[in-house]
Amino acid sequence: MKKVVLFIVSVTVLFSNDLDYNASIVASYGDNYDFYSYSENRLDLNLFYKDIQAWIQYEYSNPPEVGFPINDIRKFRIEYEKDNFTLKLGDIYEIWGRGLAFNQIDDQTTNYDNGTRGLYFGYTNGGLSISHLNGNSDIWYFGNDLRVPYFKNSHSMYGNQAQYDWDIFSIGLTQLHSNETHQKYFGEAYVNHELKGIYGSMMLANADLFLEYVDKKSTEKENLFPGSPFDTLKNGYGVYGNLNIYLGNWGLTTEYKRYVFDRGHGDFTADEYGNRIGFQMMPTLGREQNTTLLGRVVHPYNYNDERGVQLSLTGPLPFGLTLLTQYAHLSRNDTWQSITTFDWENKHIDGFLPGSNESSLPFWENYQEISGFALDDNLYFRFGRGNNKDVMKTIRFFDGQGLSIKENWVYTDSVEWQDEWFYTDSSLIGIDTTKYKLESKMWQEVSSITYPFELSYSLNNGYSFKIGFEYQERKKKNVSMGNATTYNASDSSWTLVNPTNPDSFFVIYETQYTDWNSEKIKTQFNRMITFSLSKASKWSVTINHDQSNAFDGPKTVDPYYNPLEALIFGDLKYFTGNRNKSAPPLFIQQKWVSAELALNLSESQRLSIMYGSIQGGLYCSNGICRQIAPFNDGIKLTYSAIF
Amino acid sequence: MKNILIVTLLCFNVLLFAKENESGNLIPDLKIKLLNGKTTSIYDLLEDGPLMIDFWATWCKPCKLVMKHLDTYHQTYSENGFKVLMINQDTPRSIGKVKSFIRSKNHQFIVALDPNQKIAKKLNGLAMPTLILVAQDGTIKWRHQGYMPGEEVEIENQIKEILGLNTEAESKDS
Predict the structure, then answer these.
(1) pLDDT band at B12 (very low <50, low <70, confident <90, very high)
(2) 3-state DSSP call for residue B101?
(3) Do B149 and A458 touch (CB under 8 A)?
(4) Domain coordinates of chain A in residue numbers?
(5) Do residue A604 and residue B143 have CB atoms under 8 angstroms apart?
(6) Per-residue model confidence (pLDDT) at position B22
């Protein structure tokens, strides 16, 4: 300890004359009646001394909002850059191309960190740049717990990249090797991964093009005897292309992807490994939504098995308006047929484009937006419309032929008794088989349409206000269709709905939403209203009201009635003492109200205080999604500063 | 406890002994990858005059509001050697749309790409928008996080001040 202190003091005093620094602090605290409390504090310090740069991140979090409690130096890195050489030691974050082979991020919100603690060496000369890095990474994934990760994949890795830039062209080669200790539900697997990739780009005056391809091979050590070989586990590849075309101020962005690192008709679990590894953070080809309700209907992208296209057109309209339109269509790479309840058979989708068959889990997304300034640029408005349809999963999916068997018998012997004939023997003279169409399908699909609207007006005295409104209609249903239901294992056949008439086809839609009384409800209506008043450079107050009419899962009850809710809903009884606060009225249920005060303490210091409730749900960032638990009747404090 | 002491001591020493400068720290000379594919550095951009750095992304709403004003300042004060550098933090997920977005708005400022936040981390620009005003000698004169409508007045005042032009307040006094 004394040595460390002495070292720090010596270094800073010795080099103080040329030492520069910057720092940032983020401290957040939250507490609510659900005991969803957290205290998360991080200090980032950057030091610059001649050709040396250093970064230290210290974190004291007990517990953090997500992740493990920590009271330690979380990250550090020392960099030395001289002439054409760069050397880095510590926590490395690099990106190659568009990330098909390698893209490292540290996302606190989703608790996804795929950085490498190790060594980086880089050399540049003219248009040529080469780099090598190696080290160890622990990448954590969530299990059932929404706040603490459960699965750990440890990588001992090394990688090399070379890139050459020549005028409007650029080409790069990548290679990554990782020895992974993969945590399964029970036990571990030892997997080696080898990735080789190539990417290139071209920039013209009215167009630019980017292409990337990566090939991946994984092998597994089946037994732990020393010297035993690794067996081939899985092979895969990924392709991504991006062509932008510009005409005046209009720009058309087209993107294509095909990621085939594994194949599956459902979600991939921790027990399915040897496919895409945590360093591969690729373009998803869905719109990066920036409104709350649209953010809740985002598609759960599959990096292992997905192909798709995305088109986006942006350009100016008359009167200073800007138009944005976007379309995306994604699906798995195969269609799937359930031969029995548990046996599924895949068939590769022909061509390059994504499929529309429900068994390939297709996803469509469409978004249009007009935004602009008016009234001497004091008024900003944005109006959008987004709809999507997502087949989430298939429960069974058989489309084929059934066999109807009819036996033809004749009587071959008879006797007469008391003037009547009785048949005593019969014989099978033939069997008629008739083929008929057999269909047994069941899948779950979600569709929604959302209208986000935002308006902000700035007064000349520094005050401004903002009104935001979002309206969403959402449907989530199980669709069953065909002339058969479940698979009967005892006689190896699908169970016909009407065995005497195979032509009896049916279609059933079963909504998955329930209302407050646990009754099935067809459509979920969501509304979010935001009102914000701010004084430039000083403060802002925001009130947020989120409302839904249906539950997507178990019914949740808000057992606590707070004064903010009473104020927003104009409940005078609450303030006159005539309301039982421990028995909240029905009208506060399925509504989440919050108020936030943000103060600019100085140009570089901000304090934010939030009180109320926030609805939980799916949150996605960088293609990583996690379920966020609701925050009920609590307070959040966030202080941030940069120096 | 040991770690807290070490970090506290480190911060204290840095703040106490780091290069004293009346107006702020020197910005490091970081390499910047521009949207047009070329590479430059912060000090190359400072050759003609001061520089305003802003961190943004295509999905960041307040970034788009302040961007319009920054582009105006970039064009208005370009004769004084002033430039605006917009460092984009879109990830590979949306980086393909950056150029289309900039062209649709006809923005003239300089746009750089920082897809895995290397520069943002070194300049503490992870919150968006974060504005950093740098004098021609590399001294950081002003930092600001976030944007509320109306703050463009303060931003322009800071630019005028660093360019030695009369600010609004001084004009009123005189």
Answers:
(1) low
(2) helix
(3) yes
(4) 20-77, 83-283, 514-642
(5) yes
(6) 43
Nearest CA-CA distance, residue B81 and chain A, Å: 25
pTM: 0.88
- Give yes or no for B14 touching A (CB within 8 A): yes
Mean pLDDT comparison of A191-205, A338-352, B14-28, B52-66, highest-scoring range: A191-205
Are B145 and B122 spatial neighbours (Cβ–Cβ below 8 Å)? no
pLDDT above 60 for B140: yes
The ipTM, to two decimals, is: 0.85
Task: From A139, A100, A117, A112, select the one nearest A280 (Cα to Cα).
Answer: A100
Nearest to A456 among B9, B91, B149 (CB): B149
At residue A436, the pLDDT reads 86
Q: How does pLDDT run across A351-367, given as a tens digit for each residue?
A: 999 999 999 999 999 99
Q: Is the distance from CB of B59 to CB of A290 less than 8 angstroms?
A: yes
Backbone angles phi, psi at B101, to 5 degrees: -60, -45
Instruction: Specify whether the CB–CB gap between B43 and B28 falls below 8 A.
Output: no
Judge whether residue B4 has pLDDT over 80: no
Characterise A59 by phi-psi region: left (phi > 0), alpha (psi -120 to 50), beta (else): beta
How far is it, in rounded angstroms, from Cα B144 to Cα B126?
Answer: 12
CA–CA distance, A375 with A512 (Å, rounded to integer)? 46
Per the structure block, which two tokens stand in for A402?
Answer: 């059934």
Residue B86: which residues within 8 A CB-CB, separation 6 or more? B54, B56, B67, B70, B107, B109, B110, B111, B112
Q: Is A161 on the interface with B (CB under 8 A)?
A: no
Could you give the 3-state DSSP secondary structure of residue A415?
strand
Question: For residue A574, how many C-alpha atoms fall within 13 Å in the half-sphere facing its CB?
Answer: 18
Taking the C-alpha atoms of residue A425 and residue B88, their distance in angstroms, rounded to an integer, is 89
Domains and CATH numbers, chain B: 23-173 (3.40.30.10)
- Which of B7, B14, B104 has the CB atom closest to A249's CB atom? B104
- Contact call for residues A444 and A404 (beta carbons, < 8 A): no
- Give the separation between CA A62 and CA A74, rounded to whole angstroms: 14
H or E element: which one contains A510?
Answer: strand A506-511
**pLDDT under 50 in chain A at which residues?**
none
Burial of A527 (0-12, 13-18, 19+ CB in 10 A): middle
Shortest Cα–Cα distance, B59 to chain A (Å):
6
**Cβ contact A290–B65 (<8 Å):** no
Beta-carbon pairs below 8 A across chains A and B: 215
Compute the mean pLDDT over every residue in chain B, rounded to the nearest whole number: 83
B148 and A22 in contact by Cβ < 8 A? no
Which residues numbered 54-83 in B keep a CB inside 8 Å of some CB on A?
A: 58-61, 64-65, 68
Tally of CB atoms within 10 A around A164: 15
Would you call B104 and A459 a contact, using CB atoms and an 8 Å cutoff? no
Kindly indicate the confidence band of residue B20, based on its pLDDT and cuts at 50, 70 and 90: very low
- Window A:316-345, CB contacts with B under 8 Å: 316, 322, 324
Q: Which residue of chain B comes nearest to A60, CA vs CA?
A: B4
Cα–Cα distance, A365 to B127 (Å, whole number): 29
User: In whole angstroms, what is the distance from residue A205 CA to residue A201 CA?
Assistant: 13
